[in-house]
Amino acid sequence: MPKTALLLTLVALAAPATGRAQTPVDRLRDRGPGQPTSMFGTYIKDHELLVYPFFEYYYDNDIEYTPNELGYGLDLDYRGQYRASEYLLFVAYGFTDWLAVELEAAYHIKARLETSPDDPSGIPSAIEESGTGDVEGELRFRFAHETESRPEFFGLFEAVSPQQKDKVLIGTPDWEFKFGVGAVRGYGFGTMTARIAVEYSKEEGDTQFGEYALEYLRRLSPKWRIYAGIEGDQDEVEFIPEVQWHIRTDKIFVKLNSAVGVTSKATDWAPEVGIVFSF
How many domains is the chain partitioned into structurally? Predict the structure, then answer.
Protein backbone atom coordinates (compact mmCIF):
# COMPACT_ATOMS: atom_id res chain seq x y z
CA MET A 1 0.00 0.00 0.00
CA PRO A 2 1.50 3.40 -0.95
CA LYS A 3 2.21 5.61 2.07
CA THR A 4 0.27 8.50 0.48
CA ALA A 5 -2.84 6.30 0.37
CA LEU A 6 -2.37 5.43 4.03
CA LEU A 7 -2.01 9.09 4.97
CA LEU A 8 -5.23 9.85 3.10
CA THR A 9 -6.92 7.07 5.06
CA LEU A 10 -5.73 8.58 8.34
CA VAL A 11 -7.16 11.94 7.26
CA ALA A 12 -10.46 10.30 6.28
CA LEU A 13 -10.72 8.55 9.65
CA ALA A 14 -10.04 11.84 11.41
CA ALA A 15 -12.61 13.83 9.44
CA PRO A 16 -15.70 14.81 11.48
CA ALA A 17 -19.03 13.27 10.60
CA THR A 18 -21.27 15.43 8.40
CA GLY A 19 -24.66 15.21 6.75
CA ARG A 20 -28.00 14.11 8.10
CA ALA A 21 -28.43 12.36 11.42
CA GLN A 22 -28.03 8.59 11.35
CA THR A 23 -28.80 5.73 13.72
CA PRO A 24 -26.19 5.79 16.53
CA VAL A 25 -23.37 3.27 16.03
CA ASP A 26 -21.90 1.22 18.87
CA ARG A 27 -18.35 2.20 17.95
CA LEU A 28 -16.74 0.00 20.62
CA ARG A 29 -18.69 -3.13 19.64
CA ASP A 30 -15.76 -4.90 18.02
CA ARG A 31 -12.89 -3.90 20.29
CA GLY A 32 -14.30 -2.85 23.65
CA PRO A 33 -12.98 0.08 25.74
CA GLY A 34 -9.29 -0.85 25.58
CA GLN A 35 -6.49 0.77 23.60
CA PRO A 36 -4.73 -1.07 20.74
CA THR A 37 -1.61 -3.16 21.31
CA SER A 38 0.97 -4.18 18.73
CA MET A 39 -0.72 -7.58 18.42
CA PHE A 40 -3.27 -7.64 15.58
CA GLY A 41 -6.85 -7.04 16.72
CA THR A 42 -5.87 -7.13 20.41
CA TYR A 43 -6.75 -4.37 22.88
CA ILE A 44 -5.79 -3.77 26.50
CA LYS A 45 -7.81 -2.11 29.26
CA ASP A 46 -6.85 -0.07 32.31
CA HIS A 47 -5.00 -2.28 34.88
CA GLU A 48 -5.24 -5.34 32.61
CA LEU A 49 -2.34 -7.79 32.16
CA LEU A 50 -2.06 -9.69 28.88
CA VAL A 51 0.21 -12.73 28.49
CA TYR A 52 0.53 -14.19 25.00
CA PRO A 53 2.85 -17.13 24.27
CA PHE A 54 2.89 -17.84 20.54
CA PHE A 55 4.66 -19.63 17.70
CA GLU A 56 5.54 -18.24 14.28
CA TYR A 57 6.91 -19.94 11.17
CA TYR A 58 8.56 -18.28 8.15
CA TYR A 59 8.58 -19.77 4.65
CA ASP A 60 10.20 -17.79 1.84
CA ASN A 61 11.48 -19.16 -1.46
CA ASP A 62 12.89 -15.88 -2.79
CA ILE A 63 14.24 -13.95 0.17
CA GLU A 64 16.61 -11.16 -0.79
CA TYR A 65 20.06 -11.15 0.82
CA THR A 66 23.40 -9.42 0.26
CA PRO A 67 26.60 -11.46 0.83
CA ASN A 68 28.30 -8.36 2.24
CA GLU A 69 25.74 -8.19 5.06
CA LEU A 70 26.48 -11.83 5.88
CA GLY A 71 30.24 -11.28 6.03
CA TYR A 72 31.21 -12.37 2.52
CA GLY A 73 32.22 -9.10 0.86
CA LEU A 74 30.12 -8.93 -2.32
CA ASP A 75 27.66 -6.00 -2.28
CA LEU A 76 25.07 -7.40 -4.70
CA ASP A 77 21.54 -8.71 -4.08
CA TYR A 78 20.64 -12.37 -4.55
CA ARG A 79 17.61 -14.49 -3.79
CA GLY A 80 17.67 -17.56 -1.58
CA GLN A 81 15.35 -19.88 0.35
CA TYR A 82 14.61 -19.11 3.99
CA ARG A 83 12.92 -21.16 6.69
CA ALA A 84 12.58 -20.29 10.37
CA SER A 85 10.55 -21.29 13.41
CA GLU A 86 10.25 -18.96 16.38
CA TYR A 87 8.79 -19.24 19.89
CA LEU A 88 7.89 -15.91 21.48
CA LEU A 89 6.34 -14.42 24.59
CA PHE A 90 4.39 -11.15 24.59
CA VAL A 91 3.42 -9.41 27.85
CA ALA A 92 1.51 -6.12 28.16
CA TYR A 93 0.10 -4.11 31.04
CA GLY A 94 -2.32 -1.18 30.96
CA PHE A 95 -1.24 1.34 33.60
CA THR A 96 -4.13 3.69 32.77
CA ASP A 97 -6.70 4.00 30.00
CA TRP A 98 -4.16 6.08 28.04
CA LEU A 99 -0.81 4.38 28.79
CA ALA A 100 0.29 0.76 28.33
CA VAL A 101 3.68 -0.97 28.20
CA GLU A 102 4.66 -4.07 26.23
CA LEU A 103 7.56 -6.52 26.24
CA GLU A 104 8.12 -9.11 23.53
CA ALA A 105 10.94 -11.64 23.46
CA ALA A 106 11.84 -14.49 21.13
CA TYR A 107 13.12 -17.10 23.55
CA HIS A 108 14.08 -19.50 20.75
CA ILE A 109 14.47 -19.18 16.99
CA LYS A 110 15.93 -21.59 14.47
CA ALA A 111 16.65 -20.23 10.99
CA ARG A 112 18.12 -21.62 7.77
CA LEU A 113 19.12 -19.76 4.60
CA GLU A 114 19.90 -21.65 1.40
CA THR A 115 21.89 -19.24 -0.73
CA SER A 116 21.63 -18.72 -4.49
CA PRO A 117 23.68 -21.03 -6.75
CA ASP A 118 24.51 -17.91 -8.79
CA ASP A 119 26.23 -16.27 -5.82
CA PRO A 120 30.03 -16.20 -6.50
CA SER A 121 31.04 -14.71 -3.16
CA GLY A 122 32.16 -17.98 -1.57
CA ILE A 123 29.28 -17.98 0.88
CA PRO A 124 28.21 -21.47 2.08
CA SER A 125 25.31 -23.09 0.24
CA ALA A 126 23.36 -23.08 3.51
CA ILE A 127 23.62 -21.11 6.77
CA GLU A 128 21.84 -22.27 9.93
CA GLU A 129 21.55 -20.47 13.26
CA SER A 130 19.55 -20.93 16.43
CA GLY A 131 19.22 -19.34 19.84
CA THR A 132 17.40 -16.45 21.43
CA GLY A 133 15.98 -13.73 19.17
CA ASP A 134 14.89 -10.12 19.40
CA VAL A 135 13.89 -8.49 22.69
CA GLU A 136 11.79 -5.35 22.29
CA GLY A 137 9.84 -3.02 24.53
CA GLU A 138 7.06 -0.64 23.55
CA LEU A 139 5.06 2.19 25.08
CA ARG A 140 1.50 2.76 23.80
CA PHE A 141 -0.25 6.10 24.23
CA ARG A 142 -3.90 6.92 23.73
CA PHE A 143 -4.08 10.61 22.83
CA ALA A 144 -7.87 10.88 22.48
CA HIS A 145 -10.90 8.63 22.89
CA GLU A 146 -13.22 8.07 19.97
CA THR A 147 -16.34 10.21 19.86
CA GLU A 148 -19.19 10.60 17.39
CA SER A 149 -17.24 13.31 15.61
CA ARG A 150 -13.68 11.92 15.64
CA PRO A 151 -11.74 8.65 15.84
CA GLU A 152 -9.47 7.46 18.60
CA PHE A 153 -5.85 8.61 18.20
CA PHE A 154 -2.87 6.70 19.56
CA GLY A 155 0.91 6.70 19.44
CA LEU A 156 3.71 4.23 20.08
CA PHE A 157 7.41 4.19 20.88
CA GLU A 158 9.40 0.97 20.41
CA ALA A 159 12.99 0.02 21.22
CA VAL A 160 14.72 -3.19 20.09
CA SER A 161 17.87 -4.09 22.00
CA PRO A 162 21.04 -5.59 20.48
CA GLN A 163 21.01 -9.38 20.60
CA GLN A 164 23.25 -12.15 19.24
CA LYS A 165 25.62 -9.69 17.56
CA ASP A 166 27.74 -12.50 16.12
CA LYS A 167 24.76 -14.10 14.32
CA VAL A 168 23.98 -12.98 10.76
CA LEU A 169 20.48 -14.47 10.43
CA ILE A 170 18.94 -14.06 13.89
CA GLY A 171 21.08 -11.32 15.44
CA THR A 172 20.31 -7.63 16.02
CA PRO A 173 23.66 -5.78 15.87
CA ASP A 174 22.59 -2.48 17.48
CA TRP A 175 19.66 -0.53 18.90
CA GLU A 176 16.61 0.09 16.73
CA PHE A 177 13.83 2.58 17.50
CA LYS A 178 10.36 3.25 16.10
CA PHE A 179 7.81 6.00 16.67
CA GLY A 180 4.34 5.79 15.16
CA VAL A 181 0.85 7.26 15.24
CA GLY A 182 -2.54 5.91 14.25
CA ALA A 183 -6.30 6.31 14.32
CA VAL A 184 -9.12 3.87 15.14
CA ARG A 185 -12.73 4.33 14.02
CA GLY A 186 -15.71 2.08 14.71
CA TYR A 187 -18.39 1.68 12.04
CA GLY A 188 -21.50 -0.42 11.69
CA PHE A 189 -19.61 -2.79 9.38
CA GLY A 190 -16.54 -3.13 11.63
CA THR A 191 -13.59 -1.23 13.08
CA MET A 192 -10.89 0.35 10.91
CA THR A 193 -7.37 1.24 12.03
CA ALA A 194 -4.67 3.08 10.11
CA ARG A 195 -1.13 3.59 11.39
CA ILE A 196 2.28 4.71 10.17
CA ALA A 197 5.73 4.90 11.77
CA VAL A 198 9.27 6.15 11.31
CA GLU A 199 12.27 4.02 12.25
CA TYR A 200 15.82 4.73 13.33
CA SER A 201 18.65 2.20 13.18
CA LYS A 202 21.73 3.04 15.22
CA GLU A 203 23.82 0.70 13.05
CA GLU A 204 22.75 2.45 9.84
CA GLY A 205 22.63 5.88 11.47
CA ASP A 206 19.55 7.07 9.58
CA THR A 207 15.82 7.63 9.99
CA GLN A 208 13.26 6.54 7.42
CA PHE A 209 9.60 5.75 6.97
CA GLY A 210 8.96 2.29 8.35
CA GLU A 211 5.94 0.19 9.16
CA TYR A 212 2.49 1.17 7.90
CA ALA A 213 -0.84 -0.64 7.97
CA LEU A 214 -4.55 -0.53 7.29
CA GLU A 215 -6.55 -2.94 9.49
CA TYR A 216 -10.10 -4.25 9.85
CA LEU A 217 -11.64 -5.94 12.92
CA ARG A 218 -15.14 -7.42 13.28
CA ARG A 219 -16.80 -9.19 16.22
CA LEU A 220 -19.08 -11.84 14.74
CA SER A 221 -20.31 -13.16 18.10
CA PRO A 222 -19.14 -13.21 21.74
CA LYS A 223 -16.76 -16.06 20.83
CA TRP A 224 -15.55 -15.18 17.33
CA ARG A 225 -13.75 -12.19 15.82
CA ILE A 226 -12.09 -11.77 12.44
CA TYR A 227 -9.25 -9.49 11.46
CA ALA A 228 -7.70 -8.54 8.11
CA GLY A 229 -4.80 -6.21 7.54
CA ILE A 230 -2.41 -4.90 4.91
CA GLU A 231 0.94 -4.22 6.56
CA GLY A 232 4.13 -3.00 4.97
CA ASP A 233 7.65 -1.84 5.70
CA GLN A 234 9.29 -0.03 2.79
CA ASP A 235 8.69 -2.32 -0.24
CA GLU A 236 7.74 -5.41 1.81
CA VAL A 237 3.94 -5.67 1.94
CA GLU A 238 1.88 -8.49 3.47
CA PHE A 239 -1.79 -9.41 3.68
CA ILE A 240 -2.71 -10.81 7.11
CA PRO A 241 -6.04 -12.52 7.89
CA GLU A 242 -6.73 -13.66 11.46
CA VAL A 243 -9.39 -15.58 13.36
CA GLN A 244 -9.85 -15.18 17.11
CA TRP A 245 -11.70 -17.76 19.22
CA HIS A 246 -12.67 -16.27 22.59
CA ILE A 247 -12.98 -19.33 24.79
CA ARG A 248 -13.86 -17.35 27.93
CA THR A 249 -15.12 -14.00 26.68
CA ASP A 250 -11.99 -11.79 26.82
CA LYS A 251 -10.13 -13.81 29.49
CA ILE A 252 -8.74 -16.52 27.20
CA PHE A 253 -8.69 -16.47 23.43
CA VAL A 254 -6.85 -18.20 20.60
CA LYS A 255 -5.25 -16.19 17.80
CA LEU A 256 -4.55 -17.82 14.44
CA ASN A 257 -3.25 -15.73 11.55
CA SER A 258 -1.25 -16.17 8.39
CA ALA A 259 0.75 -13.42 6.70
CA VAL A 260 1.01 -13.78 2.93
CA GLY A 261 3.52 -11.78 0.91
CA VAL A 262 1.98 -9.31 -1.53
CA THR A 263 5.27 -7.96 -2.92
CA SER A 264 8.25 -10.09 -3.96
CA LYS A 265 10.48 -8.87 -1.13
CA ALA A 266 7.96 -9.81 1.58
CA THR A 267 8.03 -13.22 3.27
CA ASP A 268 5.97 -15.65 1.18
CA TRP A 269 4.11 -17.17 4.12
CA ALA A 270 4.30 -16.62 7.88
CA PRO A 271 1.61 -18.35 10.00
CA GLU A 272 1.23 -17.57 13.70
CA VAL A 273 -0.71 -19.27 16.48
CA GLY A 274 -0.97 -18.57 20.20
CA ILE A 275 -3.23 -18.14 23.22
CA VAL A 276 -3.89 -14.82 24.98
CA PHE A 277 -4.50 -14.85 28.74
CA SER A 278 -6.02 -11.78 30.40
CA PHE A 279 -5.64 -11.05 34.14
Answer: 1
